[in-house]
């Protein structure tokens, strides 16, 4: 670790927080239907959309109707994206003449992009036509992120309202999130990327002559438009197989820093937006600070682990000064590679600018543990906020037990129903991750996909199911996932991780919206100060360590001990 690397990390994170506060104010105005900076231009378009689709923006929904609308929309999105992949060879904008995507891979990819996971068991530049990339994948990068935003603010309304039978209108939330937030930001960011050298074209490829005089075919396409929403929507699905490590997706250190900024800024802004919606900015600030503390700790641990280099290589004379550069781009270096790894897994983005499989054991533990926590620091667009608020509910329940009072948060009593629903949501992750991982280590067809045996092989399997269940989408890159077993089980993990988790969350939103708001009293536990931040961090760490410690001990921790002893061969 050195001062330059720490300064690079600090500058990016400071820029994120500086932009998140005003952006949070904009998000709050958009999701509460208030007039905002873009209203004069976009309000007529919004009204036209409602008129054409038959949506009454004044008609709100109960939590159950809201949930059904979300599920119907997601199922329709899955079906259309699956069909688009299967018939891409018959459709236009296929300049390279790609074949239809195989059924199991199309199933996996359709679930992946509908759930905001963007797990890719394929190389985009050799599998997907331009039409599939643009009309299918890029469109769902917007819609899946907007769906997450809608669900987060349905829960926020549950805390903000009193004695209300409704939590909003899913179609209105979906439209406003896309029209006023994701689309304008993505257009601006895409233009910035084009100006900095990222391709944006409908050509399929170009021919280049190498230094040796050989001919090389280089794939190109509409990269900048997908890259922009890939980061802003915390999606992560890259145009190229190498993702943000590819020079066409991120040419230099400037685009690298901008992409890290883009994948963090909306999730952090949602914490400040939540504070405005519930009428107490301090609550949003406390959540944002907690998210930042967890993120910074992860970044520093990963940077420390990678900056020390590989002891096995040091023993044979390799200079350890640059750190562990295996699987990393020289144009990015160790510091921002560690920051990208922690940020992309802390936000459920899943984009990568280095190969996590090549990280040192403790460096790789950081992105793995981020996902096992549910990618809540600061979380995906929308998904991070509602995931964090579930942990807030658990934390205030623990605080209530400690002081002998009925737990409360923002004037709403947290009772048996809310706690059962919160625990039901939280238990979805370990059941999927540990259950599917246990099945995979018992089956030869699953073990045949591993590039490594022993503790690192276990880490690869754990990472895959943590990534998909958490709707993150990054991979250790040591597991060959394009098989019938993994395409199917990873697809199921994505579906359970998104829908089995969020249905209890929306039920919590409905239960809270119906409750009366109790005024704060002298005995009310404050939820905006350092004490609550500390309690929340404690609950997060203890809760997830208890669930996953045996698996982590057999995977990256054992691998670290073997590496230090020089026996990792």
Structure description:
The protein is globular, with a radius of gyration of 23 Å. Helix 3 runs antiparallel to helix 18, helix 13 (361-372) packs across helix 19 (530-564) and helix 17 crosses helix 18 (484-514). The protein is mostly helical and 569 residues long. It is 65% helix and 2% strand. It has helices at residues 3-31, 39-53, 63-86, 103-114, 124-127, 130-160, 170-195, 223-232, 253-277, 281-307, 311-315, 333-346, 361-372, 383-403, 416-442, 444-447, 454-469, 484-514, 530-564; strands spanning 205-209, 215-219, 408-409, 412-413. The chain starts with a helix and ends in a 5-residue tail after the last helix. The longest helix is centred in the last third of the chain and has 35 residues, at 530-564.
Give the topology, please:
Blueprint: H1 3-31, H2 39-53, H3 63-86, H4 103-114, H5 124-127, H6 130-160, H7 170-195, E1 205-209, E2 215-219, H8 223-232, H9 253-277, H10 281-307, H11 311-315, H12 333-346, H13 361-372, H14 383-403, E3 408-409, E4 412-413, H15 416-442, H16 444-447, H17 454-469, H18 484-514, H19 530-564
Antiparallel strand pairs: 1-2, 3-4
């Amino acid at each position: 670790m050195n001062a330059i690397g720490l300064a690079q990390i600090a500058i990016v994170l400071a820029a994120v927080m500086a932009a998140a506060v005003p952006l949070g104010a904009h998000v709050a105005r958009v999701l509460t239907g208030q007039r905002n900076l873009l209203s004069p231009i976009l309000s007529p378009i919004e009204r036209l959309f409602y008129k054409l689709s038959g949506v009454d923006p004044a008609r709100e929904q109960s939590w159950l109707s809201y949930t059904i609308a979300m599920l119907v929309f997601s199922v329709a999105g899955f079906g259309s994206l699956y069909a688009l992949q299967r018939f891409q060879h018959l459709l236009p904008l296929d300049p390279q003449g790609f074949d239809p995507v195989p059924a199991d891979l199309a199933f996996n990819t359709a679930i992946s992009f509908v759930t905001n996971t963007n797990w890719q068991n394929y190389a985009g530049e050799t599998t997907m036509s331009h039409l599939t990339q643009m009309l299918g994948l890029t469109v769902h990068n917007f819609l899946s992120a907007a769906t997450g935003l809608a669900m987060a603010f349905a829960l926020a309304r549950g805390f903000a309202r009193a004695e209300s039978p409704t939590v909003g209108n899913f179609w209105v939330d979906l439209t406003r999130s896309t029209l006023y937030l994701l689309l304008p930001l993505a257009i601006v960011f895409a233009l910035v990327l084009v100006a900095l050298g990222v391709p944006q074209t409908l050509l399929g490829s170009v021919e280049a002559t190498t230094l040796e005089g050989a001919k090389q075919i280089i794939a190109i396409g509409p990269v900048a438009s997908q890259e922009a929403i890939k980061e802003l929507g915390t999606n992560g699905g890259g145009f190229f197989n190498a993702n943000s490590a590819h020079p066409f997706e991120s040419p230099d250190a400037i685009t690298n820093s901008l992409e890290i900024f883009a994948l963090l800024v909306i999730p952090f802004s949602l914490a400040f937006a939540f504070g405005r919606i519930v009428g107490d900015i301090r609550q949003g600030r406390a959540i944002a600070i907690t998210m930042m503390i967890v993120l910074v700790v992860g970044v520093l641990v990963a940077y420390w682990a990678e900056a020390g280099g590989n002891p096995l290589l040091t023993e044979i004379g390799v200079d350890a000064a640059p750190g562990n550069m295996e699987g990393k781009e020289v144009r990015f270096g160790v510091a921002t590679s560690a920051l990208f790894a922690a940020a992309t897994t802390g936000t459920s983005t899943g984009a990568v600018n280095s190969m996590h499989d090549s990280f040192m054991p403790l460096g790789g533990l950081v992105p793995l543990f981020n996902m096992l926590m549910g990618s809540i620091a600061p979380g995906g667009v929308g998904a991070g906020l509602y995931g964090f608020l579930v942990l807030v509910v658990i934390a205030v329940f623990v605080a209530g037990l400690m002081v002998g009072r009925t737990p409360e948060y923002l004037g709403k009593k947290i009772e048996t129903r809310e706690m059962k629903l919160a625990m039901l949501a939280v238990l979805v992750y370990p059941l999927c991750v540990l259950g599917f991982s246990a099945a995979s280590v018992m089956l030869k067809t699953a073990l045949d996909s591993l590039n490594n045996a022993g503790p690192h092989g276990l880490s690869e399997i754990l990472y895959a199911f943590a990534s998909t269940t958490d709707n993150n989408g990054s991979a250790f890159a040591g597991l060959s996932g394009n098989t019938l077993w993994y395409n199917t089980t990873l697809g199921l993990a994505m579906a359970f991780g998104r829908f089995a988790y969020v249905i209890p969350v929306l039920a919590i939103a409905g239960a809270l919206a119906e409750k009366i708001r109790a005024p704060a009293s002298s005995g009310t536990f404050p939820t905006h100060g350092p004490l609550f931040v500390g309690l929340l961090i404690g609950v997060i760490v203890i809760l997830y360590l208890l669930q996953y410690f045996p698996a982590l001990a057999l995977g990256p921790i054992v691998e670290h001990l073997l590496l230090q002893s020089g026996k990792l061969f």
